[in-house]
Design goal:
11-stranded antiparallel sheet; 269 residues; mainly beta; SH3 type barrels; 3 helices
Amino acid sequence: MKRCSLLLAAALTLAACGAPAATSTTAASEGSTTSTTVAPTSSTTTGVTTTSTSSTSTSTTAPTTSTTAPTTTTTVLAGEEIDFGPRAGDVLAVIGVRFDDVLNVRAGPGTDQPIVATLAPTSNEAVATGHTRALPRSFWTEVTVGGVTGWASLAYLGFLGVTSDITGDVVAALGGVPTADTMEELGLVVAGTQASDEPRSDIVVVTAPTVGDVGEVVVDVVGLGDDALAGLRLRVVGGIPDSGDGFFLTLVEATALCARGVTDDGLCL
């Protein structure tokens, strides 16, 4: 209380003596400032007039401009870009995929990438963009399918080449006309005559067997140890005996599955 009394007394003394005018500065928008000056106070004592005038203080703050550089997102693809592979515009067929499965087209090379499209086992509609990448254990090529661009394993893509009738060759290899209880079994028997042991071929049923007046199934034989010929697609047709039990072979058509491309005559490059 003593301290407050002293301060109050000092304030009253200054007021009586003519304290300097106070200056108040109020900030405005856009970073500028405005100065407000309080009118000077005059104090009169006996025979003495004292006038105190406050000075005007102006503070100016320059506007601050913040510029953010545009952000560029770069997608890093797995593997290494390689020179060989399908050329831009090449139309590729799916090979070696079972009839109840699909070939996945992914956002990037590698099975860990999201799926953006799928291709049926007998699809022949993927268009290459000309980009192929090598991963440690696989090759992937970029394709466009129905307006969607993604990456698919090159092991399941090829070119459809010329088709020929090899029924006689199959019958000769088996020593007679083969029979089987189902069309799938008959197709596998026929495919066995075209497969290789070293390297060991993959034999895949790519269309579900159908039965009408005749039976039919399509089987891919992939991996023949030939750089140009990736495999064969076999269309196997079976007749139905009068007994109605099982099937016997009537026709085998083989379509070349080419690895690097085809000539105008359908021959593998």
